[in-house]
Recover the amino acids of this structure.
């Protein structure tokens, strides 16, 4: 692989020279040999004036392959399209797989979209218009209409003929879907089965009638999970009356899995996903500040709580020393429990019974970790400060804190899930701050209660 | 889809009855119609005595399909295999795709593996033995040897004949790899191309000579990234002299992406990945305690730091009130910066220049968020406590803390990456605790320095 990559990097210089010398033949000879992903990587690195030359070197169809492979974080679709001749742009969009064209058009405003669709050839425009309807993050929004469908009363031979004709345009030819006269999905057959069976076999005899499908409005995360579990290379999308509308291919699902995981990850750390991309400090600060300000006010609330115990603090200033330790441990265990619960929910284990068991398990885990950490702390504080009562106070606070924080860490995302809020928004810092508050209440509550032993 | 799932759930009852009545025909009629993933889900829920009956109902080949679809978290391979007749078990392992069989055998001890390989038919044993050599998490460990290879001097027609013969055993037939007499990889051709071209076309004319491959020892994460970027359905694996050894298929890569993302996620929260699975509180506590104990001692260190400022604290007990706020904000911004840096590294943006830019960007972000949060805090504390100096002290501490914590959050994972340590092990709680310490030093340092204004 690295060999191929090295070659691609070597070719970059030659391609740039070809552009600057306006040498179309040399450019095409090298560029069209490259994988479209490498083509896209090269294209997005170009300056504006060089891009203009590339549009003239390539056909709309060739440019479509480049566009299909531009990664989301590099997207400047609007700029690129505005640089192109509108007819060229419309032809290119028509040549792209419909789902990819829709991704591009979703970045533009409505007027621009309407303009391109007007210039475009009717069939392609119609396909794209249908897909533009579906809401983001649903099966409909990631499906393509370029699938191959046949009828059950055909033979393997005639199915293979259809397949040969449609292969250049279909996004996948490895599954062929079987529909009835009403366009209802009745079966599926893989290309593997078509090849193994005799040419005169009827499709109805060999097709698989137990065909898994998803309805258009289903969340893309659910689609991804099913495709991963069942190892499908493509999954048909139907409306609520089982009419075949499109298919979702595995390459789109790989992207979904990656995006969703990175979304959960970013939320655990309270950063928006946009932030991991290459933006300046202002946009990074803008995306993080809302969280920080919320956390700041929660922190002020914690401070006001401690303020209420000022009298206790005045008497035994030493108490303050253990605040970060206790609050920190509460935050740590809470984050651990949170991560486990969010993960559990996101892999789809959401039966009441399973979640009930999870809470009980977390409570048990809190008791065990709390007991052990509590004993360790008691001993360390006793040895360090020579004060067994202070040690016991801190130790018992840790025990109580860890139990409460672990349960809270698991319970809050579950409640959010029940309230149909995505539990991943209960980010680590949020849980940490909630647990700060709980731990301070426990610690100073106990200290105030047993003040006479401390002085 | 839900329809299919509903049907599968309905069938469960009938299958259980068939088992209890020892009705093999009824069981097979329903069970063999199901998708292997559903079969596996049903199988792992069975009690031991019911499983024994299932082994008698199914052929080794049918059982192999079930085994291939058992998910890692449900694995009790050792138990299952020990329940089977050894010859049946060996036959089943031989029927499985070699990469899946190796996954199962990796759970057993060496003696057991040797036993099964001895009973097994030679060809299959040889294949498995080869794959067992490769280290975990490398391309070699997830590849399979069941690919289809042809020579360049064949025609499309003869290639299709080979494909038809090998289709039942190959893990994918959608890519055919072209090798020379030395078994060196020289090209690739997709089934799509074979179908589109005329039967008498030579493979050498239509094959793609720019074939991307990976070497056996490459990390599986790198393989996953390439397959995702290039949308490959399969990727050939070669040795360092370009001999074709096996292929990796997209379904295995989907699992890798999911695992790696979930690993990063778990580490951010300082839980081991095992923990998200269904284990009891003792094993959960056991996996979390090491982290908690380390964090506990770091927390004790923080406490001892505050202890050094006991004199300052004794004079102005009010200072203690803001400890959790300042330490908390440091932890939050640090975690944000950490998540961004880890994510950046894990998507492979690891050129020095990019990472240098990241640090500068994070510093800028820290200055902006610090300034805004600092001003907000100063105002709130002034209004609340009526003490402009205390407000300014807390505000400046927040400013300094946010800058330092943001840089630390980004810098520590980068240093770890440079030292070839996986930066994801610098979990959120670890960074949080480091930042607790830095923030306490800043806050109490400033307070002690300007003590005269506070009293």
């Amino acid at each position: 692989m690295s060999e191929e990559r090295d070659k691609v990097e070597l070719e970059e210089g030659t391609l740039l020279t070809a552009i600057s010398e306006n040498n179309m033949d040399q450019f095409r000879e090298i560029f069209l040999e490259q994988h479209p992903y490498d083509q896209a990587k090269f294209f997005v690195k170009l300056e504006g004036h060089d891009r203009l030359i590339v549009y003239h070197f390539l056909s709309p169809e060739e440019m479509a392959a480049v566009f299909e492979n531009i990664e989301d974080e590099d997207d400047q679709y609007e700029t690129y399209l505005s640089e192109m001749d509108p007819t060229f742009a419309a032809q290119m969009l028509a040549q792209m797989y419909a789902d990819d064209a829709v991704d591009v058009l979703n970045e533009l405003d409505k007027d621009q979209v309407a303009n391109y669709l007007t210039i475009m050839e009717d069939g392609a425009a119609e396909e794209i218009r249908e897909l533009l309807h579906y809401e983001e993050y649903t099966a409909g929004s990631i499906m393509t209409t370029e699938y191959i469908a046949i009828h059950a009363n055909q033979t393997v031979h005639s199915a293979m003929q259809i397949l040969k004709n449609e292969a250049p345009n279909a996004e996948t030819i490895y599954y062929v879907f079987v529909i009835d006269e009403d366009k209802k999905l009745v079966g599926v057959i893989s290309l593997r089965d078509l090849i193994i069976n005799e040419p005169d076999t009827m499709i109805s005899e060999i097709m698989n009638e137990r065909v898994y499908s998803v309805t258009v409005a289903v969340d893309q995360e659910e689609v991804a999970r099913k495709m991963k579990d069942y190892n499908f290379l493509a999954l048909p999308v139907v409306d609520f009356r089982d009419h075949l509308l499109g298919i979702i291919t595995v390459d789109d699902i790989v992207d979904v899995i990656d995006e969703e995981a990175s979304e959960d990850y970013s939320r655990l750390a309270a950063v928006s996903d946009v932030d991991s991309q290459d933006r300046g400090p202002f946009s990074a600060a803008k995306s993080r500040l809302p969280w920080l300000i919320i956390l700041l006010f929660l922190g002020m609330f914690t401070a006001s709580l401690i303020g209420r115990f000022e009298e206790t603090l005045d008497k035994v200033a030493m108490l303050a020393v253990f605040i970060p330790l206790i609050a920190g441990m509460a935050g740590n265990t809470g984050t651990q429990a949170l991560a486990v619960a969010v993960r559990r929910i996101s892999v789809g284990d959401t039966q009441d019974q399973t979640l009930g068991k999870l809470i009980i398990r977390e409570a048990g885990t809190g008791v065990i970790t709390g007991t052990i950490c509590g004993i360790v702390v008691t001993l360390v504080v006793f040895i360090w400060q020579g004060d067994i009562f202070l040690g016991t106070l801190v130790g018992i606070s840790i025990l109580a804190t860890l139990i409460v924080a672990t349960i809270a860490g698991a319970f809050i995302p579950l409640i959010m899930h029940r309230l149909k809020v995505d539990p991943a928004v209960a980010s680590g810092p949020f849980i940490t701050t909630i647990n700060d508050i709980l731990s301070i209440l426990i610690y100073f509550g106990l200290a105030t209660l047993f003040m006479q032993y401390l002085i």
Summary: The beta strands of chain A are 149-151, 175-179, 185-190, 214-215, 234-238, 244-249. The longest helix of chain A spans residues 352-385.
